[in-house]
Design goal:
The protein is α+β, with helices and mostly antiparallel strands and 251 residues long. The protein is built from 9 helices and 9 strands.
Length: 251
């Protein structure tokens, strides 16, 4: 479920048709796709340093909202490769509705409470006997290498296609997930993962002595009746590109 971007793709800022079609197919069938070497390392390292500094200064609560630079850098928000896949899967009319930092702190003693599998969004019409196309995509950008040791996110491939009636709750997913195959989304810093918001997933315990932060960005199809949008400070929007502003439907 991973694609290694070529030197030519990185230089052009666009995926070739073969890779784009594969990415959309993996998102549709597996529910997730990892793009390696999709994010400039210097920007990721800057964000990691800023987040670690926020931890040292006791400002992690504020930092996790990601409403400041460098976490809200427009090259994260409008990464050319993730947007290319998002627009191919959901159309050109998409909006940004979330940007935050999810962090799994060290759990050396193994005292972390077990977390249950969950999904970030339900099916639009769970009463229907068919699965509708994706309407929400999350992009996660790790600030460190995602390894088994530091609790790389576990996902259940294909679980976004499971219809539930009534819609499943956390307890149901936890029990049912025991009987379905899962894998951890291992990836190096500089990679990103796109996942259908309906995909079952869970953060694993971090057995290292360092934090495991990642940027968590949510995109949705623009529906005529939808009104929820992410509120972005004016001083941040001034630094954004036109493409980034369009995700707020403000330009």
């Amino acid at each position: 479920m991973r694609i290694q971007l070529t030197d030519a793709e990185q230089a052009n800022g666009r995926m070739c048709d073969v890779h784009l079609n594969l990415a959309v197919r993996l998102l549709r069938e597996v529910g997730a796709v990892i793009l390696e070497e999709a994010v400039p390392l210097e920007i990721v390292k800057e964000a990691r340093i800023a987040y670690i500094d926020a931890i040292r200064r006791g400002l992690t609560r504020k930092a996790r909202h990601a409403m400041e630079m460098p976490f809200f850098h427009h090259q994260f928000i409008t990464n050319p490769f993730s947007l290319q896949v998002i627009e191919a899967a959901m159309g050109k009319k998409v909006a940004l509705f979330r940007c935050g930092i999810h962090d799994v702190p060290p759990d050396i003693d193994g005292n972390q409470v077990d977390r249950a599998p969950h999904r970030d969004g339900n099916h639009l019409f769970p009463e229907l006997p068919c699965v509708l196309p994706v309407s929400g995509i999350y992009v996660n950008i790790p600030f460190v290498d995602f390894l088994e040791e530091n609790g790389a996110t576990k996902i259940w491939p294909g679980s976004h296609l499971i219809m539930d009636s009534p819609p499943s709750d956390v307890r149901y997913l936890g029990e049912r997930s025991k009987h379905l195959p899962a894998q951890q989304a291992l990836m190096p810093m500089g990679a990103l993962i796109l996942r259908d918001m309906r995909l079952w997933h869970v953060g694993m315990p971090n057995r290292t002595d360092t934090h495991r932060p990642m940027l968590d960005i949510g995109y949705t199809r623009v529906f005529p009746h939808a009104s929820e949008r992410l509120r972005v400070p004016q001083e941040i929007k001034k630094q954004w590109s036109k493409e980034a502003k369009k995700l707020l439907r403000t330009a």
